[in-house]
Amino acid sequence: WVRESRYGPRLGVRWWRLGAGVLLGLACGVKWSGLYFVAAFALLTVLFDVAARRAAGVASPWWGALLRDVVPAVWVFVGVVVVAYLSTWWAWFGSETGLDRHLVATSGGDPVSVVRGALGSLFTYSEHVLRFHSELVTKPGSQHPWESKPWAWPMGLRPMLYYYDGSTTGCGETRCVSATMLIGTPALWWLAPVMLGWGLWRMGAHRDWRYAAVVTAYLAGLLPWFVNLDRQMYFFYATPMAPFLVLGITLGLGHFLGTRDMGPERRRNGLLVVALYVGLVVANFVWLWPILNGDSITEWRWQAELWLPSWR
User: Fold this and answer.
1) Domain presence at residue 276
2) CA angle in degrees (0–180, nearest 5) for 221-222-228
3) How deeply is 226 buried, as exposed, middle or buried, from its count of CB atoms within 10 A (0-12, 13-18, 19+)?
4) Domain-ending residue, one of 119, 134, 149
5) What residues form DSSP beta bridges with 298?
6) Domain assignment of residue 248, yes or no
7) I need a labelling partner for 1 at 20 to 30 A (CA). Which of 104, 183, 210, 311 fits?
8) Are 202 and 211 in contact (CB under 8 A)?
9) Which residues form the Protein O-mannosyl-transferase C-terminal four TM domain (predicted)?
10) Residue 301's pLDDT is what?
11) What is the pLDDT of residue 72?
12) 8-state DSSP, 177
C-alpha cells in the first residue's frame, strides 16, 4: 500500500506532531524565542517525512512530502501553535485591568468587535514589547556587569549573578557570603563542543536521526542570537538549550554502554565509564549547590566556587 501512489500514502493525523504543536505554542507563551524552535522542528519533521518516504521505496519522496506532509505540518506548526500561544493569554483576555488590555477600543458590543478589539490590543501591545527589546542595545561604556554573548553560552563561560550579600551569618565564621548565581554544571556544559561535534558527525556519517533532532533543537536555541549581537543578552537565554545538551550527552553515553552483541567485559567497562561520569555530574552539582540556592557560606568557599575569571 505504500507504493500504490508515486507520492506514497497519506498518513492522517499524527498525534505526536499535534502534541508538539501544543507544547511549542506554550513555549512561545513563555518566551517568543520559542519561535526559533517552531521553525526548526517544522523543517526537521518535513525532512524526516522525506527520509521516511524514501526509505519506504516511494518513487517521488520530495513531491510526496510536499503534497501530503507540508499542509498538515503547516496546520500544526502554525494553526495549533497560534491557538496554544493565545491560550496562555487567557487571564489577560479576561481581565479589565491588564496592561494595555483595551489599547485598541472596540467598535461595538457584538462578539466580532470584542474579539477584534482583544486581538488588536494584544498585537499592538506585543509590537511595543518587541520594539523595546529590539532596541535595547549595549551602549559603549555602559555594559551590564553580567551581560554575555551567545558564543559564551555553550560552555557557560559567563554566568549571571542574581543576588549577593557579603554580610550574612550562619556559616560558622565571622564573615559569611550568600549568593545566587545562574551557572551551568561544568561537568555537563563543558562537554557541549564535544556533544555538538559528535552529533554532527553522527548526522553526516551515519544519518542518525536521533542526533539530527537533538542537534537541530540545540542550534535553534543558539544560532539565532548571533543575528543581533548589539542587543543586551544574558546566560539565561541559553536555558532552552539545556535539555538538548543533556539528551545529546545521554545519546553519547549510550555508545559507551554498548549493545547486547558486545562481550560482557566491554559492556562492564562501558557501564563503569557511564557510572563514573554520572557520579561526577552529581558531585559537581552538589558542590555548586550553595551558590545555586543562596546558602550562607564562608568567603573561602565563595571564592572556591568561582573557577574561572569570567565567573567573577
Assistant:
1) yes
2) 115
3) exposed
4) 134
5) 176
6) yes
7) 210
8) yes
9) 125-311
10) 95
11) 87
12) E
